[in-house]
Fold these 2 entries.
Entry 1:
Amino acid sequence: MAFMEWTEDLRLGIESIDTQHKKLIDLINALDTAIAAGYGNEALGKVLGGLLDYTIEHFSYEEHLLERCDYPSYPSHKAEHDSLTEKVEFLSHVFEQGQSVNTDQIMQFLKIWLQEHILDIDKRYVPFVKEKSGQLSQY
């Protein structure tokens, strides 16, 4: 069984975002697999770096969409993204430096953060984006 499963309650109904969220879950599961396999800190740092890179890509996509829709809560939404990015950058740096960390805590943090972010923060913008989506040429 995977560490984190995609469930229907995580579905926003915006296909591009749902696809990206599924990929984030896959990357979290890849990190969990790497930890369980006993990869060294350097290898874990690379896996975490890949997760970080895709997270930044996803956040950029989502933020661009929210800006184009003039989403009124965009500043606070972006602040949530920035906060997670900073934490994952720090963790990636820690792994690359070979420092020991509590991987169970990291994995639980990532899982809980992503679930809560999607179920609370992201779900808030769905009605707004769907209303505005007819005016957008993509997404």
Entry 2:
Amino acid sequence: MSETYDVVIIGAGPGGYNCATRCGQLGLKVAIIEKRDKLGGTCLNVGCIPSKAMLHASELYESAGKDFAGLGIEIAGLKLNLDNMLKQKADAVNGLTAGVAYIMKKNKVTVIAGEGRIDGPGRVAISLQGGGSQVLETKNIVIATGSEPTPLPGVEIDEERIVSSTGALQLASVPKRMIVIGAGIIGLELGSVWRRLGAEVTVVEYLDRILPGADGEIAKQAQRLFTKQGIEFKLGMKVTGVDKLKSKLKLNMQPAAGGEVESIDAEVVLVAIGRRPYTKGLGLETVGVVPDKRGVIANDHYRTSAEGVWVVGDVTTGPMLAHKAEDEGVACAELIAGKAGHVDYGIIPGVVYTKPEIAWVGKTEEELKAEGVAYKTGKFPFSANSRAKTNHETDGFVKILADAATDRVLGAHLMGVGVGEMIGEVCVAMEFGASSEDIARTCHAHPTLTEAVRQASMAVEGWTMQM
């Protein structure tokens, strides 16, 4: 027996469960299918949330050992209890995934535990988690299956010694030495966690810079700070393989431009070269949807090439970010319900939750130069911000980019403690088409870190007040 729905969503990550929530709010009959034991997708289970729990805990641990004494706080017998640190991470995950389950119930969303696949137009077949199968009839199918770690040819992940981000969040002990392959957001965040807990960390990157896609000036300054913290970087290097020896791993690499192979030893190797869309066994061929060579499913306002089949999140175009997937899920639901759903892809922030944090939105200087856009720049260092100086957290700066003719804010690039929260102010300003002067003339509380955003905006026209 099949059951008929207005919308069936495959995948209960941020894109899927937000789409389901909005569908329920709009009065649609909706079902969501999830193959994991818990809702929330990669983000809540093995991504954003557990990694932030470990970043926060490891940051406090390092601060207690290095910084507290200078603040007049003396601690005797400080030691790491990794089991408890991992437990608090699991508690955070459990609490939030339970919260998603509650939201589904509140909005009358039918949750089905199993693996869903498209079985022709308007049909979704499910291999149920407890055994057996079920078929749903539906007017609309939303693909929200997310992404998975991109494998590196010749390097076999076992999630024990050679790990993906998933394995790196559950190591049983602190490795003496860890090699991170990839200097993107995931590699830098997880590398920072284990460095703070005592590992020697080396980051190997194919490109000649870290954080591809970030503003070049920010990336350069970030590398300098991470190096000062103890992370070693080997840039412009191609990994050719990892040898599994009895007592260690031997990573082999050579210059990306060609040259002699060199080797470095480690106890753990983290492969963090990016993520790829997850479409395995999804039955796309039954409705004529063909992903590109990278596995990405194209969309036109979340519509695929097949009538009644929609797609949101990591599995389609755009940045692989949970908040981008959330916005797409909501917009997709609204379009299905006949409303106006929209996402402004020019105003999707990115955040790296290291210490200091790195955050950006809009255009980089490199992009503006390539597009031939005349722009003005305003910068302000946290070393001149009264709250940052009081807190002894003065690394980093704020950079505002504005159109040279209209003064409209085109981008913002921040590095410093708490900038992942501050970037929201610039996002709101950009959504309203604000100029740098609009931010500069908006009163900010004193003393706060956010004053640095105001001062950088003032600097666009050269009237900074605190330097």
